[in-house]
Design a protein that fits this description.
Keywords: Transferase. InterPro entries: GT18_cat. Helix 3 crosses helix 11 and helix 7 crosses helix 10. Helix 3 links the parallel strand 3 and strand 4. The protein folds into two domains: 161 residues, no CATH class; 167 residues, Rossmann fold (3-Layer(aba) Sandwich). It is an alpha/beta fold. The chain contains twelve helices and 15 strands.
Length: 437
């Protein structure tokens, strides 16, 4: 394991926000396995200042790893503060203290990656200084470096819950440089509320009914970075959504094998069903025989297969997957299964429970809504979608500009004031827990 250290020197002078740094030893010990290296390192800043080159040397032999990325961010930050030349938001630090983030997540293919990458990109586009760490504990030394500059820490909910009861982690009269609880925001893919200050301090990619803030995400940057495939150049593929074999046995699975066999037969085998399944069940031999399984795929292979398909067929799971948004951005219509509905008002969409409820009001030719186990409806939807090509479609809330606005609001909210209100109410009501602000 490569021991990595970054010596940061400067002086902190109060008064008129003049910042210099001296005498700080920042050590972390992370293996490449615990925090993957980046294949897309951030560009170097040419400070052209030998003083900063001596005080903030890049780590030799580790330029592509997260610590080298963090080192470059710190160099830029200190340089701009010392010279009074910081760009908009550059003096605001956001710590990403979760393995969901990092310089190599672009290569991953899962829902968490799509969310984390778009948030990470939004921070970069807004100009904030952001630092990567695999956990809250690993981020502690960096926070102590410049606590007054850190606006927000995005971390795993479990880490925040543990930190809130750990004297060496949370800010207290005996630990003045610990994390203030009001700066810790839980980055939760499920919207689980584990932050002791409540659901306001939890962000989620979608609405889960837990009270968490819906930060959302964007597929625009990842989609537009790849070419749009004209219909005439596409394969005759129907992409079957769902990357786990266990979904086939879940109660919310929308179809049975007969529905997919019928779909193939309806097109006289001219259509190939494709997907990327991993076997997470106890059965070793069964694979859906009616589809070509590409297995686990990296981001590039997944995007290529999806963008060359004609239709994306939902299966009920996973709920709120980013795949339908990615498909629409590639010009691939989505068949959205209706899992539950009001029998007395079957066309009342507010009562529908679908695979992607955020899309249940979008009409053809973009989204086709079909009741579960309606085999004829499935065939009709696929036939119509294949005959009605679409261009790129990005939902209004999925534009990167919309996400930037939401991320900017998240970072710039006065969380200390909100926490003060909660603590004051608890004190008045003799309630706990109470925390140092």
């Amino acid at each position: 394991m490569l021991a990595k250290s970054l010596l940061i020197r400067g002086l902190l002078l109060s008064g008129i926000t003049l910042l210099l740094l001296t005498g700080f030893l920042f050590r972390t010990h992370l293996s490449p396995a615990s925090f993957p290296s980046s294949s897309h390192p951030l560009p170097h800043t040419h400070d052209q200042d030998p003083l900063f080159d001596r005080l903030f040397p890049l780590l030799q032999g580790a330029e592509g790893e997260a610590q080298a990325e963090n080192g470059r961010q710190v160099r830029r930050l200190v340089a701009c503060l010392a010279r009074g030349e910081c760009k908009e938001n550059q003096a605001g630090v956001v710590i990403l203290a979760s393995s969901k983030f990092g310089p190599k997540i672009e290569g991953y293919n899962n829902a968490e990656r799509a969310w984390a990458l778009s948030v990470q990109n939004a921070l970069q586009q807004l100009g904030y200084t952001y630092l990567w760490f695999p956990s809250l504990q690993d981020a502690s030394a960096a926070y102590r470096l410049f606590p007054d500059l850190v606006k927000l820490v995005l971390a795993d909910g479990r880490d925040i819950a543990q930190c809130s009861t750990a004297p060496h982690c949370i800010k207290s009269p005996s630990n003045s440089l610990g994390f203030p609880l009001w700066k810790l925001v839980s980055f939760s893919p499920e919207g689980a509320v584990t932050q002791p200050l409540g659901a306001q301090w939890v962000v989620a990619p979608d609405e889960f009914g837990t009270g968490a803030q819906v930060l959302g995400y964007s597929v625009e940057d990842a989609c537009r970075a790849r070419p749009f495939v004209p219909r005439g150049e596409r394969e005759q593929h129907v992409y079957v959504l769902g990357d786990r074999l266990s979904y086939w046995y879940h109660r919310d699975y929308a179809w049975d094998d007969g529905a997919f066999w019928g779909l193939r037969d309806a097109f006289y085998l001219e259509v190939t069903l494709v997907g990327g399944l991993v076997n997470d069940t106890q059965w070793d031999t069964y694979w859906p025989p009616y589809m070509d399984n590409y297995g686990p795929m990296g981001a590039e292979d997944y995007y290529s297969l999806l963008s060359h398909s004609e239709v994306l067929v939902g299966t009920g799971l996973p709920a709120n997957s980013p795949a339908p948004y990615e498909a629409l951005c590639f010009g691939v219509p989505f068949v959205n299964p209706i899992l539950r509905w009001d029998e007395k008002r079957p066309f009342h969409r507010e009562s529908w429970v679908t695979q992607n409820d955020a899309l249940k009001h979008l009409e053809p030719p973009y989204v086709y809504h079909v009741k579960r186990m309606d085999r004829e409806g499935l065939v009709k939807a696929v036939r119509t979608a294949r005959a009605t090509p679409i261009g790129r479609y990005i939902a209004p809330n999925m534009y990167q500009s919309s996400l930037r606005d939401r991320v900017n609001e998240l970072v710039e909210t006065d969380w200390r004031a909100r926490a003060q209100e909660i603590i004051s109410r608890r004190v008045a009501a003799f309630e706990e827990p109470l925390f140092e602000l």
